[in-house]
Write a structure and sequence with these properties.
The protein is an alpha/beta fold. Helix 5 (107-120) packs parallel to helix 7 and helix 10 (206-219) runs parallel beside helix 12 (251-267). The model is unreliable at 1-37 and 439-443 (pLDDT under 50). The strands form four sheets. It has a nine-stranded mixed beta sheet, sandwiched between helices. A three-stranded antiparallel beta sheet has the order 12-13-14, with no helix packed on it. The chain has a three-stranded antiparallel beta sheet with strand order 15-17-16. Helix content is 47%, strand content 19%.
């Protein structure tokens, strides 16, 4: 949400809003200067197809019996060429193949895309290249081919080692498949294999969760992502729960599960570096850090999102871009126009600051003064947030920490970040609106 749009809708004079936008543009001219000089970006590629739809999933994915792999590859390559040229980035910092189920793609498609990226920009040999893998026997059988194609990090959607829960979630693998795939992935990418686990599942107890997590940590590598199950409208699981067929844990129970998991992971040598992510031996996800640190990223494929400056179009501002969702329509648009961008929005300075705040506070290190200064050289973190009595109180209670490093959550507060973010975002808006009123006279 951009403050200028909201305030204009609320009745501020158009002339005042025009002058306000002039101030934003002056601020924007110096924002993110170091990053844009570096001209680096992450690349996300979305493979939209799955063998089946999980009961809890509302992602942009499609179950299609026969996928035209050749046409899909051609369109992904062409859109990559178009958007990389548009961005004029010089270096690709990381690549992530997500979905959907990208392990259903042909390894040759992955290899072709990486070849295309290397022709359009620098793609150093040690660039992190992640592939999401569904741990079925079919997915595991191609891991070595994906590794040969250039993938050097696997993210396994294990979700749970409880076979009955896997059935409830609509997954097409079992715990034996998971452990077998995990072992092969670790052998191919030692130290670079991550596992996704879901907690807060129907009928799950804290005791069962502890035992399951302990079992997983015996087998896993150096990165774990924990996600609380959320009920999404329109999903099969939502209907089952609301019809009374399944019971979900209470909020208090899921909070205990989260805290229990944090403690168990800590005991096993994992450090939490983001709300949902834990690593040991520095095996963090460099790609996801690009998101949380507010760097540029280019989204390729149906429904992919991106944030970058369209330099060849003379773009001085970063844009938020969304590609067309439906694969067949997206492919037609790519064939006709070179890309399937459905929506593009120029981000104001306030949009950038909102995203920096919402994403940066997810990290245990929070937002550094240097990071904030890159986003907005004119307003410091202390200036924006420490004028608020409510935020001062949160600091005094030890929930928020403001020091010479920057602004971050305490260990306890990271678990309730969703309650703190609205307070921080509101103060950002209040500060911005005060600067507007104090710096201009209303005509």
């Amino acid at each position: 949400m951009a403050l200028s749009r909201g305030r204009a809708a609320g009745g501020w004079p158009v002339s005042l809003c025009r002058r306000f936008m002039t101030v934003w543009r002056k601020l924007e001219s110096g924002s993110e200067e170091e990053e844009e000089k570096e001209a680096a970006a992450a690349v996300y590629v979305h493979w939209p197809y799955c063998q089946r739809r999980c009961t809890y999933c509302n992602f942009n994915k499609y179950v299609k019996p026969a996928v035209d792999h050749d046409l899909m590859q051609q369109c992904l390559v062409r859109e990559s060429e178009t958007l990389l040229h548009l961005s004029q980035i010089k270096r690709i910092s990381s690549v992530y193949f997500g979905g959907g189920t990208p392990s259903l793609a042909k390894p040759a498609t992955i290899a072709k895309l990486l070849e295309t990226f290397s022709k359009c920009a620098q793609l150093p040999d040690d660039t992190e290249v992640t592939l999401e893998v569904n741990p079925t026997s079919a997915g595991a059988s191609k891991l070595a081919e994906f590794r040969s194609a250039g993938v050097n990090r696997f993210s396994l959607g294990i979700q749970t080692l409880n076979d009955q829960d896997l059935v409830t979630l609509g997954r097409d693998h079992n715990s034996r498949d998971s452990l077998r795939t995990l072992q092969e992935a670790k052998e191919l990418c030692p130290g670079r294999t991550s596992v996704d686990v879901i907690f807060g599942r129907p009928g799950q107890s804290t005791d069962l969760w502890e035992r399951e997590l302990e079992e997983l940590l015996v087998a896993c590598d150096d990165h774990v992502s924990l996600y609380q199950l959320t009920l999404e409208r329109g999903t099969a699981l939502f209907k089952q729960v609301h019809s009374g067929k399944l019971d979900m844990p209470t909020e208090e129970q899921t909070a205990i599960m989260y805290e229990t998991a944090r403690e168990i992971l800590k005991q096993h040598g994992f450090q939490q570096y983001e709300v949902s992510n834990f690593a040991r031996n520095d095996a963090v996800s460099n790609h996801n850090l690009m998101y949380w640190r507010g760097r540029q990223y280019i989204g390729i494929g149906p429904g992919a999102h991106g944030r970058f400056r369209p330099s060849t179009e003379g773009g001085a501002q970063r844009e938020a871009r969304v590609q067309t969702l439906e694969p067949d329509v997206w492919m037609m648009e790519v064939k006709n126009s070179g890309h399937g961008t459905r929506k593009r929005v120029r981000l104001t300075q306030l949009d950038v600051l909102e995203e920096a705040l919402a994403m940066g506070m997810r990290m245990t290190r929070g937002i550094t003064h240097e990071h904030w200064k890159k986003c907005c050289a004119s307003w410091g973190l202390q200036d924006v947030f420490m004028q608020s009595p409510e935020i001062q109180s949160l600091v005094q209670q030890g929930l928020l920490i403001m020091d010479n490093r920057g602004l971050r959550c305490s260990w306890e507060a990271l678990a309730v970040l969703d309650c703190l973010l609205p307070v921080l975002l509101n103060q950002l808006h209040v500060f911005a609106s005060d600067r507007l009123v104090n710096n201009f006279e209303t005509p």
